[in-house]
Amino acid sequence: MSKKENPVIELRDVQKCFGMGDCVFTALKDADLKVFDNDFIAVVGPSGSGKSTLLNMMGLLDEPTGGEIIIDGIKTAHMNSDQRARVRRERIGFVFQTFNLIQTLSSVENVEVPMMIAGLSREKRRKKATKILEDLGLGDKLDNLPSQLSGGQRQRVAIARALANDPEVILADEPTGNLDSQTGKDVLDIFKKLHKEEGRTLVIITHDEYVARVAEKRLRIKDGVLHDGE
Amino acid sequence: MRLDDTILYAVGSLRKRKLRSWLTIIGIIIGITTIVSIVSIGDGLRKDIQDQLDQFGSNQMFVIPVNIESGGLASYVGTPTGRSSSGKLYERDAENIEGIPGVVSVSKAVYGRANVEFKGKEITATIYGMDSNIFDIWEEMYYPVKGRVYSDNEKRVVYLGNDAANLMFGKNKVDVGNKMEINNEEYRVVGIMKKIGSSMSQSDDSAIYIPFDQGVEVFGSELAKGEVSMILIQIDEGYNAEELKESVEYELMKSHKVSEDDKDFSVITAEYMNEIIGSILDIVSTFLLLIAMIASVVSAIGITNTMFMSVMEKVKEIGVLKAVGASDWDLQMIFLIESGTMGLIGGLIGILLGYGVAYVVSTFGIVTYVSLQLTVFALLFAVGVGIAAGVFPARRAAKLSPIEAFRY
Question: Are A100 and A157 in contact (CB under 8 A)?
Fold first, then answer.
């Protein structure tokens, strides 16, 4: 119970509008959400429901038009761009549907990027990146460019990158969306393992009920409104 | 992000996009080569003229039988014989000038064109009949590369301009001791001049020089009795050329019986020549500066364009770097180093190519000059425009949220 009192990520009445000045389209309405340490949450919703917007808010990738986002007890509303970048660098790992790897960098270099930005020495980050990739079964693909990897392999490199700076939470946006069902299942197995064996905190955004069933807790989102429930 | 990592990342990213990097660098090279070669031609022209002005020392002046201020210069330059309709100078003018205090020596010259024959080949050449002390006054310019200069009392001797000796008679080169005919009289070659080689002295290089008295003999039929084409005056160290100019003008006005307003001659000092040619040079310089500015603007646009394209290709990468925690500063440093490196490489190669173009142009007889200032300017320009063109779009891209950047 004591642990549960301090959420890793907390959203209070978060709202996101699109449009110049006026609120032409509300992608997210008064979202309240708490992600605690060791949670494994799936947010399920059809396309256009605002679920990616929700993830972008949680990960400080985009700014809300209302409400408050609190990361580890720290309010983020008045943070500037660099301060938000620092929070992302130190506390959050991202996995995207389209992988978003840097095309000119090899697997191991892609995984090193967050550590390089954090200022880790070359030897340390190479060692750590190699270890993470080996754990994810990519020990023989260290020097391959993303274009030389399959979709499943690319997503594993992306997961490795998300783990690089030991974040408190990993946010995954449709991580299986661009994968066939078997490789999608493999990727989900990795998430399950990360949660069970390493106690990682995970939030997965998906439209897929099958994917959502892997998580321990499910939230639903429709027309920008977040609901609890199965 | 640590500085060494930033540099490695930036340089690494240039190496990994070899084609794109080189295309951008080529854009810079073209711009810089254009600036360097164009400005080098302008500077060369300027320097060439300036060098020749400098050869004309402040302790010399000359008199020509035309009033430059009344617009006679064009008619004077326009006549190949140097004979003007407006006025005449005479040997007695030279003698009068010699008597003015402060005048060290006076040299007379007559010139025109005459038939010259050497080993069966006949041409028409410019011939100067000059007092030999001119060779002492302008020793550096009229130095013999072979043989010697003539002395005033020698008969039937010639001193040849370098081109006159080596180029004008086809495959036959003239050597010291050879004989040639001027207006069917035989002359002996006593010396050959070193090549002056500047654009304004082409006519001096291809001229034939003979003693003054011989010149009078050659051109006697065209000249009035005792007429000379030009008088050159050497001034004593302690005297001021401008003050002496007034004495000379006074002397000549008196003997020509003319007033200040209808002078039929001009006394030209170094200062006066600088004034006349300087005003022409200023026009030339302004024009060349304009061309250089246009070249700079065109190349700046070219550099900006290629740089902008290469940054736009990387907006998504910028988004990824931001998502995983790169600060705006990190991103700006990466692009600063990337575009600065491309600017530096492009600038250096562009300058080398510019030197090359300037050299090739100079082999066609156009004097070019790549100054240190031009080199430094071109390098700073390449790096500066490169950085500006690379960093400004990158800054804009870095201001996007990662999500917006992903959409590119």
Answer: no
CA B181 to chain CA mean position, Å: 35
pLDDT in single tens digits along all 230 residues of chain A: 444 568 999 999 999 998 877 788 889 999 999 999 999 999 999 988 999 999 999 999 998 999 999 998 899 999 998 999 999 999 999 999 999 999 999 999 999 999 999 999 999 999 999 999 999 999 999 999 999 999 999 999 999 999 999 999 999 999 999 899 999 999 999 999 999 999 999 999 999 999 999 999 999 999 999 988 66
Name the strand (E) or helix (H) holding B98: helix B91-98
Query: Hey, CA dihedral for B307, B308, B311, B312, is it positive or negative?
Result: negative
Dist CA A18 CA A27 (whole Å): 7
Q: How far apart are CA B339 and CA B37, in angstroms?
A: 24
Q: For residue A63, list chain B residues with Cβ-Cβ distance below 8 A.
A: 401
Q: Tokens at residue B233, please?
A: 């005056």
Q: Are the CB atoms for A76 and A60 separated by under 8 Å?
A: yes
Residue B308: φ, ψ to 5°: -60, -45
Which chain A residues contact residue B408 at CB under 8 A?
none
Whether ipTM > 0.85 holds is yes
CA distance, residue B370 to nearest chain A CA (Å): 40
Q: What is the DSSP string of A55-121?
A: HHHHTTSS--SEEEEEETTEE-TT--HHHHHHHHHHHEEEE-TT----TTS-HHHHHHHHHHHHT--
How far apart CA A59 and CA A19 sit, in angstroms, is: 22
Contact status, residue B63 vs residue B263, Cβ threshold 8 Å:
no
Interface contact flag, A61 B9, Cβ < 8 Å: no
**Nearest-neighbour CA in chain A from B314: distance (Å):** 10
- Whether B1 sits inside 8 A of A85 (CB atoms) is no
User: Which candidate in B324, B327, B332 is best for mutational testing of the A interface (most A CBs within 10 A)?
Assistant: B324
Residue A31 near residue A9 (C-beta atoms within 8 A): no
Q: Which neighbouring-strand residues pair with B105? A: B234
Q: What is d(CA B26, CA A15) in angstroms, rounded to the nearest whole number?
A: 49
Q: Residue B398: closest CA among chain A residues belongs to which residue?
A: A81
